[in-house]
Design brief:
- Helices cover 50% and strands 12% of the residues.
- The longest helix has 21 residues.
- It has one domain: Orthogonal Bundle (Cytochrome p450).
- It is α+β, with helices and mostly antiparallel strands.
- The protein binds protoporphyrin IX containing FE.
- Protoporphyrin IX containing FE binds next to helix 14, helix 15 and helix 19.
């Protein structure tokens, strides 16, 4: 492929609606130009880092490669709309992904304990109940459904609402906002809304939550954020709302995409499905393999704070860098048979949750959710197969399947 055509394809949301094309283009980069300078039409230029070892090298040096100035790929046109909507600010929210130290550590600390395995274990009964509800719903729909749109999208949102402490009647509203937020460029998902409107809708929703929690504190993450102090002063509203938006958005489609992608991986690997049915204890390994295999977060950006040499190229201070997690997770030098789904892959130090100080704070929660879901699903569904063509969300940032037609039987 010609350079500019390749660069344009790498930035184009549509590329990511074709999962084979996505993997092919990144395999080409890993082979031919793993530290790739790119200038797609309509975007500010950036480097693409596609090798596992290079992504880790960058992520472990958070002082040399910072987050704040540019966190994800947006077109120039979109970046100027954001500035317009935010009175000159270059970002819609300021949460952990938009922060560097010392602030990052201060804000991360606020919710740290809530996302540790010790606390996650206290949610296990609730998660099992929600997983059971999902499988009940599956059978209530008959013997076929769209597994992504009718099952997978509800479950993580419910878990998240539990941890944040949000009432069940808000589910439809939050689901709508989250989907608009993550529609990226996908016409099926966006339904006329866009990221700016969706962020404003989130903030409107969470403003009321924060106000209510300040008046009537509860034992939940929403209260922790609303009533927290930074440097001895109450958290600013913008940062509080941003925190909520980050949790609600980051904790949702990541997990539903992994679950739907995991179901597809098992359908395509019947031996793996049979094995997990026989040995459900392997689900803790399989959950990691699903995250590696699906890699629903397609990138985050860093900005170089210093000049830096990598594979004979000079990254200049101020340059933007896209870290491709799906590519790192398919790197032939890091994984044995990277394109195979191996439920008990070991070791499996994948990059699906990122790496370093910004590594996903929700990873223990996500893992517990995935395990609880598949434990319930595989114990009750005896047969599940494709009943149509799967389709992937057209987004360069975050997403996976947007349609997974299946037929099934069980109890
Ligand atoms: C399978 C599910 C999930 C995947 C694949 C995933 C993936 C990721 C990735 C790749 C990052 C960026 C890491 C980096 O910059 O190195 C991240 C950050 C983050 N995730 Fe997750 N995530 C998942 C679930 C969740 C859940 C359930 C929550 C919370 C409820 C969550 C909250 C966050 C937050 C707040 C950040 C920002 C962390 C920071 O910048 O310090 N994620 N996640």
């Amino acid at each position: 492929m010609l350079d500019i055509a390749l660069d344009n394809a790498l930035a184009d949301h549509k590329t990511y609606g074709n999962i084979d094309l996505q993997h092919r283009l990144f395999a080409q980069l890993r082979r031919d130009d793993p530290v790739h300078w790119t200038q797609p039409d309509g975007y500010r230029p950036f480097w693409i880092i596609s090798k596992y070892a290079d992504i880790i090298e960058i992520e472990r040096q958070a002082d040399r490669f910072i987050n704040a100035p540019r966190t994800k790929l947006l077109s120039i046109e979109f970046e100027s709309k954001v500035r317009e909507a935010m009175n000159g600010r270059p970002m819609l929210v300021r949460a952990l992904p938009q922060m560097d130290n010392p602030d990052h550590a201060k804000y991360q600390k606020l919710t740290h304990a809530w996302f540790q395995p010790r606390h996650i274990r206290t949610l296990s009964e609730r998660m099992t109940a929600l997983a059971k509800e999902s499988v009940d719903r599956l059978f209530a729909m008959g013997d076929r459904c769209d597994f992504y749109g009718e099952i997978a999208i509800y479950y993580p949102l419910r878990v998240l609402m539990t941890i944040l402490g949000l009432p069940q009647e808000d589910e439809a509203r939050l689901l709508k906002i989250t989907q608009a937020y993550f529609g990226g460029g996908d016409p099926d998902m966006q339904k006329g809304s866009d990221l700016i409107d969706a962020t404003i809708a989130y903030v409107d929703y969470f403003k009321d939550v924060a106000k209510e929690r300040r008046q009537h504190p509860k034992d939940d993450v929403a209260t922790v954020i609303a009533t927290s102090e930074i440097d001895g002063r109450p958290i600013e509203d913008f940062e509080a709302y941003s925190y909520y938006v980050a949790l609600a958005s980051a904790g949702h489609d990541t997990t539903s995409a992994t679950i739907a992608g995991g179901v597809l991986a098992l359908i395509e690997n019947p031996d793996a499905m049979a094995r997990l049915r026989r040995e459900p204890n392997l689900l803790t390994d399989a959950a990691e393999e699903m995250v590696r295999f699906v890699s629903p977060v397609k990138h985050f950006f860093r900005t170089a704070a210093v000049d830096y040499e990598m594979r004979g190229k000079t990254i200049r201070a101020g340059d933007s860098i896209l870290l491709s997690y799906p590519s790192g997770n398919r790197d032939e030098e890091a994984f044995d048979r990277p394109f195979a789904f191996i439920p008990d892959r070991s070791p499996n130090r994948h990059l699906g949750y990122g790496f370093g100080i910004h590594a996903c704070i929700g990873r223990h929660l996500a893992k517990a959710e995935i395990v609880a879901f598949f434990r319930e699903l595989l114990s009750r569904v005896d047969r599940i197969e494709l009943a149509g063509k799967p389709a992937w969300t057209e987004t360069s940032f975050l997403g996976g399947l947007k349609r997974l037609p299946v037929s099934y039987s069980g109890r």
